[in-house]
Design goal:
The chain has twelve helices and 14 strands. By secondary structure, it is an alpha/beta fold. Among the domains are: 137 residues, Rossmann fold, CATH 3.40.50; 139 residues, Argininosuccinate synthetase, chain A, domain 2, CATH 3.90.1260.
């Protein structure tokens, strides 16, 4: 690795990244630029500025990326009804390409020759950050301290902080026993008792939602308006993508919606158990499939369903900036041209129930054909006989051979 003069660090302001900041200076004798993003994690990011300043950082980036995140990452992913291994709505995965993009952009703006992150050598995030960075700047140098240093325990980290005068009072009050990650789409929990797949999560762990048992006895009914596959309004009120997410998180969480407990297959090879709260994403997935059921051609819908697991793996494994993701995205976006209309949903005790869907101009549902009553000749039922016999031909031939 060539001499590094300046590094852009993905900086939260917490203990780990503050230690990384000091470690980078000591190890590489370099200048450090900090980048802190607000992507809806629900915590103030501005205090990171004071912490970076206190540690002598001269170039500090604090950015509100909530709308960028929702509009250009979350919404495109949900146009595909994306879900990994049948359950995971990819809340952590989809945030990483945005952070990688901004790390590279800031590196270009500041003349930095390296970027750094706080992801460990066991997880998926190191892969996602670095694949994104290399796709956007092939010659960038990446420093991953967790793969280099020997500070591999909480005790060693605390000792290092004490030795170098790094404040450790960033988390006031009782510290959560879980490793958590939050953004507009979800909050995740790993570690602690969750490392045993047989141990159930503690009720006190959940931050965004009430339990279904404690949810209101009366349902909440909402209407979501779609344009080209994206929600643009709730109950007739036009909202930006980030506000859509924030609103649905509140409504869903209040009704016990969005909790999940998953054992997933990490890209690096191990299985991992995590719990997730994804209220807005759970509602969006159900509603989007409902409006597509009305407006999307059968074979187009089925093709999307066949491609979705591949698209989900591409995102989960960190290939957002790859040619295959971009190709898939173009196909997905083209399929959404006529996905317009309104879906009425009932939110009740952990359930998202479709109560109605309509599309004034793009519905493919023809009541005159689908009716069980007199269709006035709109459909000739006798045509079905030839259709069935033609499709049965190969089955009949095979049966005769047997």
């Amino acid at each position: 690795m060539s001499k590094i003069k300046k590094v852009v660090l993905a900086y939260s302001g917490g203990l780990d990244t503050s230690i990384i900041l000091k470690w980078l200076r000591d190890t590489y004798d370099c200048e450090v630029v900090t980048f802190t993003a607000d992507i809806g994690q629900g915590e103030e990011v501005e205090p990171a500025r004071a912490k970076a300043e206190a540690m002598g950082v001269k170039e500090i980036y604090i950015e509100d990326l909530r709308e960028d995140f929702a509009r250009n990452y979350v919404f495109p992913m949900f146009r595909a009804n994306t879900i990994y291994e049948g359950e995971y709505l990819l809340g952590t995965s989809i945030a990483r390409p945005l952070i990688a993009r901004r790390l590279i952009e800031i590196a270009n703006e500041t003349g930095a020759d390296a970027i750094s992150h706080g992801a460990t050598g066991k997880g998926n995030d190191q892969v996602r950050f670095e694949l994104g960075a290399y796709a956007l700047k092939p010659d960038v140098q990446v420093i991953a301290p967790w793969r280099e240093w020997d500070l591999n325990s909480r005790e060693k980290l605390m000792a290092y902080a004490k030795q170098h005068g790094i404040p450790v009072d960033f988390n006031k009050g009782k510290k959560s026993p879980y490793s958590m990650d939050a953004n507009l789409l979800h909050i995740s929990y790993e570690g602690g008792v969750l490392e045993d797949p047989w141990s159930g999560p503690e009720d006190s762990m959940w931050r965004w939602s009430v339990s279904p048992e404690a949810a209101p006895d009366s349902p909440t009914v909402i209407e979501l308006s779609f344009e080209k596959g994206d929600v643009v309004a709730i109950d007739g009120k036009t909202l930006s993508p980030a506000i859509v997410m924030e609103t649905l998180n509140k409504l869903g969480g209040a009704n016990g919606i969005g909790r999940d407990d998953i054992v997933e297959n990490r890209y690096v090879g191990m299985k991992s158990r995590g719990c997730y709260e994804t209220p807005a994403g759970t509602i969006l997935l159900k509603a989007h499939r409902a409006i597509e059921s009305l407006t999307l051609d059968r074979e187009a819908a089925h093709l999307k369903d066949e491609l979705m697991p591949r698209y989900a793996s591409v995102i989960y494994n960190g290939y957002w900036w790859s040619p295959e993701r971009q190709m898939l995205q173009q196909l997905i976006d083209a399929s959404q041209e006529h996905v317009n209309g309104v879906v009425r949903l009932k939110l009740y005790k952990g359930n998202v129930v479709i109560e109605g869907r309509k599309s004034e101009s793009d519905s493919l549902f023809d009541e005159s054909i689908a009716t069980f009553e007199d269709d006035a000749g709109a459909y000739n039922q006798q045509d079905a006989e030839g259709f069935i016999k033609l499709n049965a031909l190969r089955l009949r031939i095979a049966a005769k051979r047997r």
